[in-house]
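Aim 2 progress update. The chain analyzed this quarter is reproduced below.
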Amino acid sequence: MIITHKTECFPNLKQVKSLEINFGIRRFFFNKTIMTLKHKYNDLKENRSLIKKKEIMEMRRSVFRDNYTHFTSLAPSHILDTTMEDVMFALNSLWKKGTDITLRKKKISNTCRYGNSSPRGSFRYENGSKYISLPKLPNLKLAESLRWDNAKIKLVTVKKEAERYFISITCEIPDRPKNINHNRHLGIDWGISTYLTCYDGKNIYKADFDEKILKNLDRKIATNQKSLNRKKMFSNNWLKAKTKLQQTYLNFNNYRLDEIKKWVLKFDHEFDSVTLENLGMKFVTSNRRLAHKAKQKPFYLFKGTLINKFLQTGKSVYLVPKNYPSTQTCNFCGYIKTGEEKMKLGEKTYTCPSCKKICDRDENAAKNLWAYRNLELATI
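Predicted structure tokens:
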């Protein structure tokens, strides 16, 4: 099983300088490779058949090693290897999904990756230690030790965010045994007023973020943004205000992710399978009254975290088709509201015209999702 441990790291001044050099070299060679390919082939999407991976790897050896020796000597070869992998990933995204390739910028892209390409291993780490040694970066201090003993490290990514450094250590560990919970199944409905409404065949469970914490963090973001706008751009006070704003955004994202991981861990311990809506969120984000709250309570973050966790432990996540009317269907008699009867986003109660049953909108949808049987198995 491949699994990742992310934590904060604390580089000293010498290590900070080395990391900044690695960030810059990664950005430079990625942009240089893309610009070279565009100059040679003009349209990268139309000339897909002419671009070969072998050519890109030869470009790394012949062009960069010969013409930019003063750059390449400052960084380990891992940086160039993983940069070429990033180029291939960007090209594949362009060819398969139509995603445009954007050049890396300093204010956004402060990341470097170290791949374990050496047969003997390029990383040194002892079980229970809070230090890891990377190529040309010895004894990097970690906030916490790895969660697994004798794990084989495959990839290390270091990222700078809000003037802090974070490290993601991708490891290979033995497969975990599947927890058997007597085939318990859970249907989960996502909403804006109540984040998660769940039904397991007997009981209703609800989970939501703390509104006070969200409001406080939202208020801090607005305050720090106003403070940044009043400063002269690129002055020392402007840089301090920018870092403070970035830190507030980081705290906001970390709070949501922490709560979501707690809920996902609980579901993983108690249930064998889960049914989710396969939602398209454009109709929510295009509504200016709902867009802000929808971004505060992200569905795709929960969906991706849940799918990754369940597939790691050998369990199943099922996705209901987008056109399935879980909200418009009565969970008691099966009546489906259509036309003018359809429920609007502001309605909180479902009233069935056929059987006259009245129930909560989200609870009704959760029960329909639990009972749905034509399921599509989710994959990473």
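The longest strand covers residues 152-161. The radius of gyration is 25 Å. These observations will guide the mutagenesis experiments scheduled for the next reporting period.
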